[in-house]
Amino acid sequence: MKNTKLVIAMLAIVGAAFASCKKEKSEAPVPAPSSNVKSFTFNTNSNAWTQKANVFSATLLVEDITSDVLSKGTVNIFIGDGTGSNWISMPVTLYEAQWSNNISFQSVKINAEMSIKENTAFINPGVQQFKVVVVSGS
């Protein structure tokens, strides 16, 4: 009986020692292969925008947005501050305008929508800067 208790006690000590040891994982994030990620910068001017009610729209042509990207990859759109170094992910609301986008085969439609206020005209967005990042799924 003493041997059984001694064996059980030893097993409990060894089990507790192994349970308290944890292997630390030091895995670095795996960067996406650069061939799968492509970035494009676009600048608009006042001629790029069309107006329908309180929404101005501009279409950016991006041939790298393929059906494969649409089904297996991702497309991210950013609006710039004009310097080329600061980007804000869309959709976003800036200066009372709601900036959104519609992504389709080989194009991105940018929409700028202003809340209609009494006696306030929504002015053409004119010169704006956008970045389109295309990540293929394969």
What does this structure look like?
With 138 residues, the chain is α+β, with helices and mostly antiparallel strands. Helices cover 18% and strands 40% of the residues. The protein is built from two helices and nine strands, in the order αβββαββββββ. A five-stranded antiparallel β-sheet has the order 2-3-8-7-6, with no helix packed on it. β6 and β7 (97-104) form a beta hairpin. The longest helix has 19 residues, at 2-20.
Topology:
Layout: H1 2-20, E1 37-44, E2 50-52, E3 55-61, H2 67-72, E4 74-80, E5 87-89, E6 92-94, E7 97-104, E8 107-114, E9 128-135
Antiparallel strand pairs: 1-9, 2-3, 3-8, 4-5, 4-9, 6-7, 7-8
Give the oligomer, counting copies of the same chain as homo and different chains as hetero: single chain
Specify the number of helices.
2
Q: How many runs of DSSP E, i.e. beta strands?
A: 9
What fraction of residues sit in β-strands?
Answer: 35-45%
Helical coverage, percent range: 10-25%
Written as H for each helix and E for each strand, in order along the chain, the element string is HEEEHEEEEEE
Spatial strand order of the main sheet: 2-3-8-7-6
Distance between the termini: 64 Å
Unreliable residue stretches: none
Round the mean pLDDT to the nearest integer and report it.
83
Q: Please state the CA-atom Rg, rounded to the nearest Å.
A: 27 Å
Major beta sheet, specifics? 5 strands, antiparallel
Q: Which class of secondary structure composition applies to the elements?
A: alpha+beta
